[in-house]
Amino acid sequence: MTHFKKIEIQNFKKFDYLKLENLGLFNFIIGDNGIGKTSVLESLLINEKQLELSYDYLLAAVHERLKIGETLHYSNRDILGDFYYHNSNNRKITINREYDNGEISGEIELYFKPISELDKVEQEYFNTIFLPSSKTVVVLKSHGRILSMVSGEGDSESKYYPFIPFHMGYSKDLVQFYSDNILKDREVKTAFVANLKVLIPDIEDVAISTEGANESLILVWLTGENKPLPLGMLGEGATRLFRILAEIIVCKNNVLLIDEIDTGIHFSRFRQYLNIILKVAFLNNVQIFATTHSKECLTYLRDVLKAENNLKIQTSTRVFSLIKSSNGEIKAINYMFDQFKYAIENELEIRGGEFNNEL
């Protein structure tokens, strides 16, 4: 997959219309609580080339955000419609994307529909590809022409999503990531373990074991210890870094979305933490979209970017501040490094709130 260069989206979550352009390899989304930072990440889960995967991405994101185990008596279409449409009277999401290879998606429309609401053309399309048991569908159109249609039943449990929620740390999928993408390559494993020293200074090795457990565990060997420790015992920050580095490797040459990248990290380790993530992502050509509203995170990001050996990373980084204008519209202001550095060093508030003209 190529990387994003420009994104436009309409009628999605918080946004009547939102445009992010001149995107970099690293894109930090900042703003006030509830302004829509996570919504930006979720909008990027829509992939016009893989509609079924997009649908499962969105459904999984709803389940993750709302923990809706108790409300599954609603149809998936109702859940997605209620959650994702900005204006419930306009039941379509419109996206435009430009990629770094010059490819343009054109105007794409996304609908969640029950079978009873399909028009004649949609019904004919449906009859050629679906079993009669399907109750809901997701329809993708371009300028009124159907591009794709998938069943609205979803299968979010069986697919990988390049999206790390703010609370996501250790879980069984991490064992699979490590086993499939790191453990089998000695060079990759050696670099991976070395990078973990940022938050686990005494680490010597990482292994997988099933002894005495119902499922596999990630075990960490520390200097001077006779027995390894489960990764989960080393703290939220260590687990968070392990997951992010593992998913960067999984997403090589692709895109990775990280919600609240600062979660669980002590300020004393933050500079090294960000430095490692950006360097590993750069080496693996992974486009990062990360949210934060932490002033400390932005200060340490400035420190990392201005380091002499990080010039390429500096020129590849953008900071987008989501601002609500006086008429209630949400806009994204793009800060290149010099503007971002100036704001941080002069203590200008760029993390959101009402629209102002300070910069």
Concise summary:
This protein is of the alpha/beta class and 359 residues long.
Task: Describe the structure using short key phrases.
six-stranded mixed sheet, 359 residues, globular, single chain, alpha/beta, six-stranded antiparallel sheet, 11 helices
Written description of the protein model:
Among the domains are: 113 residues, no CATH class; 84 residues, no CATH class. Helix content is 33%, strand content 25%. It has 11 helices and 15 strands. The strands form 3 sheets. The chain has a 6-stranded antiparallel β-sheet with strand order 2-1-4-5-6-7, with helices on both faces. Strands 8-12-13-3-14-15 form a 6-stranded mixed β-sheet, with helices on both faces. A 3-stranded antiparallel β-sheet has the order 9-10-11. α7 packs parallel to α8 and α8 crosses α9. The longest helix has 16 residues. It is globular, with a radius of gyration of 22 Å.
Specify the number of helices.
11
Gyration radius (Cα, Å) is 22 Å
Structural class based on helices, strands and sheet pairing: alpha/beta
Fraction in beta strands? 25-35%
- Mean pLDDT across every amino acid position: 86
* Helix-strand pattern: EEEHHHEEHEEEHHEEEHEHEHHEEH
Helical percentage: 25-40%
Low-confidence stretches: 68-74
Number of strands: 15
Largest sheet: 6 strands, antiparallel
Q: Could you give the order of strands across the largest sheet?
A: 2-1-4-5-6-7
Distance between the termini: 35 Å
User: What global shape is seen?
Assistant: globular
